[in-house]
Amino acid sequence: PPPPPSIVKMAAPAPAYYYYLAAQMTLKQGDVNEAVWLLEKAMAHDPHSPFLKMETANLLLLLKKQDRALNLLNAVLSENPKNVQALALAGRILQQQDKAPVARALFEKALAEGCDDQNIFLLLGRIYWNEKDWDNALRVFDMQTKRFPDSYAAHYYRGKVLIAQGKLAAAEKALLQSLKLEPTLEEPRLEL
Questions:
Q1: What are phi and psi of 120, to 5 degrees?
Q2: What pLDDT shows up at residue 51?
Q3: What DSSP line would sit under 71-106, residue for residue?
């Protein structure tokens, strides 16, 4: 008789799990190339696993293989366009490749989906800063200060944007808050 359906469902991921564990052990030994090869074997057994694709993409980035990592992230996003980690990581890669408009869109989507990575707020705000889009930069840093009130960087960059907008009293308040949170910083003192 054929095996029960539950065993059939479990049989497919078992080799993937084996290769994943082997990749982790290989990674602990410092062989990133071999770990990538093993993860690719795992993905062959479980081609729809976003986890395996994300793990492999992160290792590919260690090997400076951004395009291959981006291909995996795009595969994750094609199956789940709301995957916050894939949106954020793809955005970072594209920003490093000087593709700010595409990175901006991915970061915006990641934040809209509830991303809680402070760095994404900073990266997105800096894109708007570089584009001299003060209103959107302020919007992003306002969101960050509300979500992470203890982030000295959020208050600092918010203060810089307010200076650029000529709102000096509000800028001073933001910069002082940054210093209150991190008294050893010199940058806010220079802005004041």
A1: -65, -40
A2: 92
A3: HHHHHHHHH-TT-HHHHHHHHHHHHHTT-HHHHHHH
Alpha helices in the chain (DSSP H): 5-11, 13-28, 32-45, 50-62, 66-79, 84-96, 100-112, 118-130, 134-147, 152-164, 168-181, 187-191
Q: How far apart are CA 66 and CA 78, in angstroms?
A: 18
Distance CA 97, CA 139 (A): 25
Q: Enter the tokens of residue 105.
A: 């869109």
Furthest C-alpha separation in the chain: 79
State the DSSP code for 144: H
Helix axes 152-164, 168-181, angle to 10 degrees: 160
pLDDT of 60 > 90? The answer is: yes
> Is residue 69 packed enough to be buried (19+ CB in 10 Å), middle (13-18) or exposed (0-12)?
buried
- How far does the chain reach from its first CA to its final CA, in angstroms? 79
Q: Please tell me the pTM assigned to this model.
A: 0.82
Residue 7: its pLDDT value, please? 38
